[in-house]
Amino acid sequence: MFKKILIANRGEIAVRIIKACKELGITSAAVYSDADITSLHTRLADESYHLGGSPATESYLNKTKILELAKSIGADAIHPGYGFFSENADFIESVEKSGITFIGPSSKSVKMMGSKTAARNLMTNCKVPVVPGTTEAIADVDSGIAAAEKIGYPVLLKAAAGGGGKGMRKVSSSDEFKNAFESTKREALKSFANDDIYIEKFIENPKHIEVQIIADKHGNYRHVFERECSIQRRHQKIIEESPSAFVDEATRRRITAEAIKAAKACDYFNAGTIEFLMDANREFYFLEMNTRIQVEHPVTELISGIDLVKEQISIAAGNKISFEQDDIKINGYALECRIYAEDPDNGFLPSTGKLYAYTEPNGIGVRVDSGFSEGSEISIYYDPMIAKLICYDSSRDKAIERMKRALDEFSIFGVTNNINFLKQIINSSGFVEGNYDINFIDNKNYQMDINDNVLAKSSEYEEAAAIFISLVKSMQVNKKAANSLQSTNNWWTQNHE
Amino acid sequence: MNEFIVTSQNAKNKITIIDEKSLELNGELKNYQLIEISNSKYLLKIENRFYHIDYRKADTEAFEISVNNKLHNVKIRTALQEKAFVLLEKAGVNKDSESLTKSPMPGLVLKILKNSGENVKKGETILILEAMKMENEIKASLDGVVSNIFIKAGQAVEKNLNLFSIK
Asked: How far apart are CA A318 and CA A307, in angstroms?
């Protein structure tokens, strides 16, 4: 086993890794930037090293500095967390060459899965389902219609050079094809100076379902079931759950088998996640592979009993996976809410500031993974996630009730955050009934039923706020009056203020 | 003197403080107890219920108050100040005021979508500010006319810098 692990990350995931190191008896070495001097990981680690300025390029993305530091402090492994260098094949290759162990997959696997088109081809070759479509640009309307009919309507016309939702158009029938084809071409030319168009099957109201896989350096592959992460804003997940209420046993067998096939296709080892889109008929299509630990890994840990971060470290050290596939089963249900410093009423604009008050919920079935504490500063430099709140119980309904309770207990003051927004979603009938897809937030489906109970509480709190501020004001006024009475014996102020 | 009008998002509440233990909320008698925990943290008991409170002053009459983790923006006025305010409001003095939007964070102005003098609706995007590697839409806070744009596309802005105003 390793003696010292350098954690090349920050925030809650650095804290998560430090905790695993402590339990394994491994020395943890944290790194930090100027902005993170008040963050939790710096004081929880056995050793902490200052990397540089607040911008990530001067600190968490400074490859040379991190590698030199790892060597000089005698670290025998580097854990990259998620984000930053975790999926950077160039960084991983440098670590491999330095003789230090990278806690994650090989640079080769990361490269194979790194490019979307390369990954798509790799999956097609090993017969993992991908979203059906043409691989080459469409030459003209007639050949486009032929291709679309072969794929089956509705289809999506996409600019080959496109991105960010631009140069895309849904087509439901051959009649619509000609007009849509021409306008997409025009739009593509204007936006991307390239009017190549290809066709992809349009997946209606898809759910985001992903499979946790884990593999060792001895060729053993396991899956740790699925997660559903359909509740997203700005194409980023904010609520994740495991198991998915939508996935039945037969679908689960199929999707986990495909995920393992995908992992084998890139000779994968360590923890990884295969993401799929799933349509209403439970047909699913490969989206991409995340070659690292995921933000939402705790929901999997709670329902399986597997400590994924410890497993990562053990596998990197050359050990076999600690469990057989048949050893694990889904036990209960887990739900995660990401607490972000952002303003849901204003386009989810990130917010910054100091956490004047910060108290985490606790109690049975409640886990909080966070990287901050009271007095910490949420800066502009990094992802504005404050914490992850994970609730576990024997059923989905019970876990949702627990999440409502825990969200009520979470106290954050000083930084605008999304706790009330999360409460709204958790309380909406669409979410409770499992009736949602990745467009749930964009379509504002959570606003359909505002709970009477929630409204009643809010006027009660408003009254309490009004009473409180009146008491404060009255104390100030009376204090002032008392002072002036003492100093000048000014009866007029007292009576006429 | 111990009569206050507190305006929050959904309501105006009238509070009359009677003594150290009792007050009237909109004419209804309530028992209370206020315990200071630290500078800005309090426990407030009203009848049989405790509330934990954090607060911050926003400007002379506005406060941010968190009650059991729920944030409220309130304005407090004495009964006399409120009377004056209502009179002024009726006379239309307060209505014509400009709404100034400041930069919520340091960032880079990517694009300005509206011109000075243009009519805008509440919620319409006025400009796009890039920060935290994300494009953030800065929107109109009310219906009106863009009266001033204080920045240029491509400009880096600090937090709280004036961006634009709407009349």
From this structure: 17
> Could you give the CA distance from residue A171 to residue A155 in angstroms, rounded to a whole number?
5
Cα–Cα nearest to A243, from A223, A220, A226, A219: A226
CA A332 to each of CA A28, A275, A393, A394: distance values in angstroms, whole numbers, following the listed order: 32, 22, 6, 4
The pTM assigned to this predicted structure is: 0.82
> Given an 8 Å threshold on Cβ–Cβ distance, is A464 in contact with B69?
no
The first and second tokens of residue A166, run together, are 């631009």
Express each pLDDT in B35-45 by its tens digit: 998 888 999 99
User: Nearest-5° angle of CA A445, CA A446, CA A452?
Assistant: 130
Q: What is the spatial distance between Cα A265 and Cα A27, in angstroms, rounded to a whole number?
A: 35
CATH topology of domain A4-103: Rossmann fold (3.40.50)
Q: Are strands B125-131 and B134-139 parallel, antiparallel or unpaired?
A: antiparallel
Give the span between the Cα atoms of B44 and A149, in whole angstroms.
67
Q: Which domains are seen in chain B, by residue range?
A: 3-90 (3.30.700.30), 99-166 (2.40.50.100)
Least CB-CB distance to B2: which of A347, A381, A474? A474
* Residue among B113, B109, B135 at smallest CA distance from B124: B113
Nearest residue to A388 (alpha-carbon basis) of A360, A412, A365, A355: A360
Query: How crowded is residue A263: how many other Cβ atoms within 10 Å of its Cβ?
Result: 27
**Residue in chain A lying closest to B20 (CA):** A471
Minimal Cβ distance to A468: which of B42, B56, B159: B42
All structural domains of chain A with their residue ranges: 4-103, 141-201, 207-452, 453-494
- Model confidence over A17-28: pLDDT tens digits? 999 999 999 999
Cβ within 8 Å of residue A446, ≥6 positions away: A424, A425, A428, A430, A431, A440
To the query of whether residue A254 is one of the catalytic residues in this protein, the response is no
Does B134 contact A350 at a Cβ distance shorter than 8 Å?
Answer: yes
| CATH superfamily membership of A207-452 | ATP-grasp fold, B domain (3.30.470.20)
Residue B53 β-bridge partners: B42, B67
How far apart are the C-alpha atoms of A152 and A476, rounded to whole Å? 72
Confidence band for A492, pLDDT divided at 50, 70 and 90: very low
Q: How far is CA A316 from the centre of its chain?
A: 24
- In angstroms, the first-to-last Cα distance of chain A is 74
Cα dist from B42 to A376, A415, B39, whole Å: 21, 19, 8
Continuous segment of H or E residues that includes residue B72? strand B70-78
What CATH class is the domain A141-201? alpha beta
